[in-house]
Design brief:
alpha/beta, 18 strands, 476 residues, 5-stranded parallel sheet
Length: 476
């Protein structure tokens, strides 16, 4: 096994190297592809692109319109649009007659894989180990390990680049009380991310508990319900939220996922941003109304011949502790937050639909720690152009590190939303090139966020004076 190369005269550096190839860096790679003046490369440790394979449940759809593909909202003429994908598959007319605004999840995955398989700048099977700054040559050094199809090390390498974009995505979140059981081999406690890999085994379990009242929990509950015999469902669905709440999907509510709101949020004070994010959970962590309707319809159908389905749906509950009882049972110690009551639940399998968390950057960027600027909570500071705030000794050279889906604390709840992917990618490319290969709209929302909105950097001056705002009395 060859060790990483020792420092040496760098080869000609790339203009941009991407770490991670999920939908967001795939969007960036697709929009960068026609910019022939840019030399780019993207690395991912997986052998190929796959988007949440454990949750590609039949008939589930993505929660944004198909226009929120990798490129359309920045460049609808791009060859990498979803509509062009359909054209290459001779499926435009079937899609036209299907009248689908929200496409199947499996179809979105297939579309992304089509893009990934046709972009020459993507390098799968490459694990990035470290990122460092080389002050002698004013470039970033990226150490990576090439893996074989079994994930074993083949060779080590190093590449150099003027700019880096980190898009390493999120990782499944497992609540602390359940972590030991989830880590134990052979214990049927799995995260929703692996649901389809275990579904056949789960369906043989006598009693199944789903923890988590978001979209994934709802989809898994519905899928299990459909595959269990009436009167013998033996399903328990619980979660911390006070209700099985619908996701906010009103037209004006959706304007929280516009560039206008992102810019407004970024300009707020850090303590205000930190209070806002958890308070806005229903904008992105609720359940799609159609899914809730379908669940109710399925439960109602099972009452038509008398009796009730053997299901328990209880919101407002959290798991205090958990453990094994006998060799096959799992015992959950539950607490109801409103009643302040406790009970025990014995079950045969647990599915944790408990969401995802941003992967921390600290390990990957350990070599850059002296150069990183952090906020009051020791999180990386990120400017409005999605660049980590670094020591001026680096940024003065024109070199930067961009992030994708690691900036919720600075850019708000739109950070993981697919609908902002193309706009963010275009923003990064416009900033990196110092040009405007992708002209972006100056206004994207009817809502004016704040009394003194922060205009887009390229907003042309208006020909009409803005109205004067008179301060109001404090008691108003």
């Amino acid at each position: 096994m060859t060790p990483h190369p020792t420092p040496h005269q760098p080869t000609t550096p790339h203009d941009l190297v991407g770490i991670g190839i999920g939908p967001f860096n795939l969007s960036l790679a697709a929009l960068a592809h026609p910019l022939t003046e840019l030399d780019t490369a993207f690395y991912d440790h997986n052998p190929a692109f796959h988007w949440h394979p454990g949750l590609l449940i039949d008939d589930t759809t993505i929660q944004v319109p198909f226009l929120a593909d990798l490129v359309t909202l920045a460049d609808p003429t791009s060859p990498w649009t979803f509509l062009n994908y359909l054209k290459t598959r001779e499926r435009l007319f079937p899609f036209y007659f299907a009248e689908r605004f929200h496409i199947h999840r499996t179809e979105y995955d297939a579309y992304c894989r089509w893009v990934a398989e046709n972009l020459p700048t993507l390098h799968f099977g490459h694990h990035v180990d470290a990122v460092r700054w080389n002050p002698e040559h004013n470039v970033f050094e990226i150490d990576h390990t090439r893996l074989d199809t079994d994930g074993k090390t083949q060779t080590h390498g190093r590449t150099h680049t003027k700019n880096v974009v980190i898009g390493i995505g999120t990782e499944p979140h497992i609540p602390e009380p359940l972590a030991p059981l989830a880590a134990a081999p052979g214990v049927p406690v799995i995260h929703a991310a692996d649901y389809l890999h275990h579904r056949d085994t789960l369906l043989t379990a006598g009693h199944i508990t789903i923890v988590g009242t978001g979209q994934s929990g709802a989809e898994i509950f519905l899928d299990l319900l459909r595959h269990r015999p009436p009167g013998h469902e033996k399903l328990h669905w619980l979660g911390r939220t006070a209700a099985f709440a619908p996701m906010e999907y009103s037209k004006l509510g959706l304007e929280h996922f516009t560039p206008d709101y992102t810019r407004y949020f970024h300009a707020l004070a850090e303590p205000v941003r930190d209070r806002l994010v958890p308070a806005q959970w229903q904008l992105h962590k609720g359940i799609d109304t159609d899914t809730l309707t379908t669940i109710h319809d399925e439960l109602y159908r099972r009452t038509l011949h008398g009796g009730w389905p053997d299901t328990v749906l209880t919101p407002g509950v959290h798991v205090r502790t958990a453990g094994r009882v006998t060799t096959t049972k799992i015992e959950l110690h539950l607490e109801h937050t409103q009643q302040n009551t406790r009970t025990r639940l014995t079950t045969d399998a647990v599915i944790l639909a408990t969401g995802y968390r941003q992967r921390p950057l600290d390990h990957l960027l350990a070599g850059l720690d002296p150069y990183l600027r952090r906020d009051n909570s020791e999180r990386p500071r990120i400017d409005q152009h999605f660049r980590l705030v670094l020591d001026p000794s680096i940024t003065a050279t024109g070199c930067h590190i961009y992030v994708q889906n690691a900036e919720t604390h600075t850019h708000g709840i739109g950070t993981p939303d697919l609908g902002l992917a193309a706009w963010r990618s275009a923003t990064i490319l416009n900033t990196l090139t110092g040009k405007e290969p992708y002209p972006l709209p100056t206004r994207t929302a009817f809502t004016t966020f704040g009394l003194h909105p922060h205009p887009h950097p390229h907003t042309p001056p208006t020909h009409h004076p803005a109205p004067t705002l008179t301060p109001l009395a404090d008691h108003w």
